[in-house]
Amino acid sequence: MFQLIGVDSVTAAKKAHEIIKLETNLAEHSMTRVERRDPDKTYHKMTISELNKLTPEFDWASQLRVLGVQGVNNVIVSQPEFVKNMNQVIKTTPLQVWKDYFTWDVLRHTSSYLSKPFEEAHFKFYGTILQGRKAMEKRWKRVVETIDGNIGMALGQMYVKKAFPPEAKKQVNEMVQHLKEAFREQIKGLDWMSEATKQKALEKLDKYLVQIGYPDKWIDYSSITIKPEDYLGNVIRASEFDFQRNIHKLGKPVDRHEWFMTPQTVNAYNNPTMNEVVFPAGILQPPFFDPKAEAALNYGAIGVVIGHEMTHGFDDEGRKYDSDGNLNNWWTKEDQKKFEKRAEKVALEYDQFTVLDSLHVNGKLTLGENIADQGGLLLAHNALLKYYQAHGNPGNVDGFTPDQRFYLAYARVWRAKYTPELQSMLIKVDPHSPPKYRVNGNVVNMAPWYKAFDVTPKDTMYVAPDKRALVW
To answer: pLDDT by residue (tens digit) across 293-312?
Structure first.
């Protein structure tokens, strides 16, 4: 990258070496990904003056003024040790290295929007070396991704008109209500949780804000100047717009209906600080959801996703937030210990799984997602049974029972291909388990799955009942 802006090869190599050294110095005092999953460890409220004491070499008040932040007296410092170390790194790192580092930072963030040599150099490392990809996406696809990432809600308005009719939203909302009812019954029937904690859990479940398809209010991008001949400029102006939009939120009431994904995104999320679950229209499409498909297929696919996001509010991280989204321990000490014991068993189960022969899944890093996967599969199956009670059981289709079709639909949505390079990177950084274990590592804990496929101790995937790991 430095050579592309005119730096000779020897000097460029020296600059690269110093930048790696700087980033390593900063990283050595960063919390691990597992530690960062614990909100109790990352919530440190401080005044600006207290923060300045941590970093005498960095004037935070001045920095906030430059950014246009006014009237803010308190901040949340997620990693105080990192900030303290940063102060030391500032003192010991030559000014020229900082200049080179920020030059590199600009290059790294803009290279995909610059001329072909920059774009190819960026892809060679982040695409090929890190992910094993052989070629870039077609230009039009890359540009659509840029639009999605910068003014995605404008694209979303076009998308939902074409891909998500009102009747589909109504059908998904009915499924959500079935899943909530299944979760309510599941909580009530837990034999390890006290009544006091159950009541708090039910209160949180009942207060879930569920958003489906697309937001009620769209973002107005009309103030952004878009120029056909200025690709990078368009990205910068969109970024500035988004930054200012966030700055203007300071000191104002929280908008509990704001979306943090675009409607066309094939994903969903649970936001614990809002006590909400959000399902964009992008994931409410086949193979996850088809308005014309039978119940077993929809409950086995999108039903599990809905249950997954609901369960996130009660996983090892989400359970620490109350019904209003505040970080507040609502568990009795005894129930908390029981939960942690059950969660530890899940973590140990996933620790045993490997990819590429020898790389182990990190059970603690993936714990929240694994608990949510379990809850999603359990709740969706219970909700499907309730659906059949109300509408009748269709029986076998193409030689498969309803339960078999349910689990096959679940497995189908996680079909995926990974390069070895991407897999080896994800196993270190992704809080999700590899798709194979999101399916095989999950179903072996579910009693209905054993019955559906007549799995016995003679079968490879059989796990004895006392060895199965299940939280909810």
So the answer is: 999 999 999 999 999 999 99
